[in-house]
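Protein in question filed below.

…
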Amino acid sequence: MNTKNFLLTTTIIVSALLLNSGPAYSKTLAEKQAGVSSAIDRSTKFTDPTLRAILKDIAKGVVANPSLQARTVSGTILGQNVTVDSATDFKNIPLLKKLTGSISGHNVEVTTSAVNFARSSTTDTLVVTVDGKIVYSGRIKDIKQSDLLNAWNNLGQTNANQITSRETARAASKAIVSGISQRIGFSLAPRARKKDTGQVMLDGNLVGISSGDASQKIAVWSNFSYTFLSNTQELSKYDGHLVTGLLGSDYLVENAGGIGGDILLGLAVSREGLGLDTKFNTGILGTDGTSLVPYFGYRLFDGAVVFDALYAHTWLDSSASRNREVGEVTGNYGGSRNAWAANLNYHHIMDNWVISPGVGMVYAHELQSNFNDSVGADQASTETYVGDLKAGGRITYAPTSDIEIYTSHYYSYDMIPYFAPRLLSCATPLGGCSTIRGEVQSSVGTNFYKDNFSGFGDLTVTGELGHTFRENTPSSMVNASARLAF
């Protein structure tokens, strides 16, 4: 069962177990609330701290309800409207076998296989239905946090963006950053290139050839990537894809301002499309985004040292559905994302090889607006932060004059929890967000070169396969790009 079912279920279970423990109504409210908190702390069943905290909240709310003697009890627990029909005085709930109620407009029934709740034990079967659909059937002792989240989802409370936003923001930012950083590398970094007559000689030394030829100051390029996304955690399981397309142009300024280096100035436009099957709330999430990305590159020592930086502003438009098996709830909302990235790489040439160690960072802030869903519930806005540092390198080899083969490997670490743990939060009471901070990013690819392509300029075509090794949220990427310099 999930969180919403969880609310009513635990309300019933806790009230049944605790109200049956003695003459609670002869005590003051504070004493009763302290008593239920103590009972939950002593229980060996509720070991998860998050679950225990929610149970305490619910139990205190039940005890504090002024309508304890009424047939129907209404109130708000964890921000949800809860109504319980006891069929008798509320304090006699332990004598019942079935309890019916509603949570945020959904009809919920909880039934125990025991004679009544008072005589039930953790080995008895508990059956919970939402609008006639069974969302949990099993022993009380076997209830897992995933069951509680499932109940919450069936009652329409978990929005996909609450769970997926950090990982999707990271994936979208990385797709833009890697696409543009690679284009800057083609313009500024040296490459090992074997001519038919042997290596190129410069001042008596064997060197590679810089992609930023003096006669090629202008370049236009395009990049396409398809990323397979997944989350294997029980509380936040999803899979889907992210498609990103980039179109850009840049201009090379040699010895800019007499400062002894070359500067690349560029502008790109990006379109992205996200599609996820959010299994944790039996829903679908779709997001379209448009980005405007100015970027900058700077090289020294004939491209031995290359620095690049970019800023990307993205306008987002999302649609989400959930609870398709119970009664679909839909909603639409807008948002925006700001991302900053920088990379510093050193390129060492050895014959037909280029060894390129480097470091980089990505910082992104994404804000998704609040909205009212199709059942009129107000869904809160979601704010997401990503702050990754990476270090690693790339090895490139040129077997012929027109082909390069490369592989890259980087270790990336999420620094947000270290610098600003307050920025990490899950928007659902039961959690579900990934807490993994490190990942390994690996790729292999090939560059194909065609000089003076159809008389227009030098053409570079790249194909790349990549995989991000990250516990719970791995991803795989296919990337293709083309660049024409003239």
Remarks:
- The longest helix spans residues 160-188.
- The two ends are 62 Å apart (CA to CA).
